[in-house]
Write a structure and sequence with these properties.
- The chain is built from 10 helices and 2 strands; from the N terminus they run H-H-H-H-H-H-H-E-E-H-H-H.
- The chain is mainly alpha-helical.
- Helix 5 runs parallel beside helix 7 and helix 6 runs antiparallel to helix 10.
- The chain is globular, with a radius of gyration of 18 Å.
């Protein structure tokens, strides 16, 4: 896997949304970001009745709610809209001219928005009063995860996602097929993509499990996610390190 990743690096040197270009220890970054997304997603679903990262799930919950079977559908709608807004705003921040790298700007936005959600989660008592407070919290979390989703979309030139794991599952299926039955020239790449997808999926699920256990301290869960994400700032590559 390392050899094929190394051979892919020359083709990604101009790609500002590839984790290999933007971060040291890119596999660690992939593992941590997907783990954080799963961590806060499980928390938000159990506390607010809506996901903050898994927008496919929110779309289904919205439909179920409109059919009269899910009372928390406004929370799902708020998270979905806020996620799109967060992605749109932070994408423009990343694209703007600046002395700071796109990854550093994107990470800063994700950390700040996650920190704001953490503060709001404490002030609104982690949504235990229901109603407008849960809607506001779902929107705050969705915006933060939308910002996080822009951080990178590829790993060594291979499509990987932080928050959208339905696509990861589909890609794993495609890559396993190419690995087992594709031409020899593509099997090595397909094997690498399969391992990357499994890593993201396992870390997302592990984060979800930890987020469920963390319900014992619900007011601090987004804060813990903020601290973990902020630690990634030490792994951002400086411009001098890039080629």
């Amino acid at each position: 896997m390392g050899d094929s990743a190394a051979s892919a690096r020359p083709s990604i040197t101009s790609d500002p949304q590839d984790v290999y270009r933007e971060f040291r220890q890119p596999l660690l970054v992939l593992a941590l970001t997907t783990g954080i997304a799963g961590f806060v997603d499980a928390f938000a679903f159990l506390r607010y009745g809506a996901f903050v990262a898994n927008q496919s799930g929110n779309a289904v919950l919205l439909g179920i709610g409109l059919a009269g079977r899910h009372a928390a559908w406004p929370e799902s709608a708020a998270s979905l809209i806020a996620f799109a807004a967060g992605t749109g705003v932070v994408s423009q921040v990343r694209a703007a001219r600046s002395r700071w790298s796109p990854s550093l700007r994107g990470l800063a936005c994700a950390v700040v928005t996650l920190a704001l959600w953490a503060v709001l989660n404490v002030l609104l008592h982690h949504g235990r009063q229901g109603g407008p407070s849960r809607i506001a919290l779902a929107a705050a979390g969705g915006f933060a995860m939308g910002a996080l989703a822009t951080l990178f979309v590829r790993t060594a030139g291979i499509t990987t996602a932080i928050t959208y794991q339905s696509g990861t599952v589909a890609k794993i299926g495609e890559r396993v097929g190419r690995w087992l039955a594709g031409p020899d020239t593509r099997r090595k790449r397909a094997r690498q993509g399969t391992f990357l997808g499994l890593l993201a999926l396992i870390c997302y699920a592990t984060g979800g499990g930890i987020g469920t256990v963390a319900q014992e301290q619900p007011q601090w869960v987004p804060a813990w996610g903020t601290l973990a994400l902020a630690a990634l700032s030490f792994l951002v590559r400086s411009r001098r390190c890039r080629r």
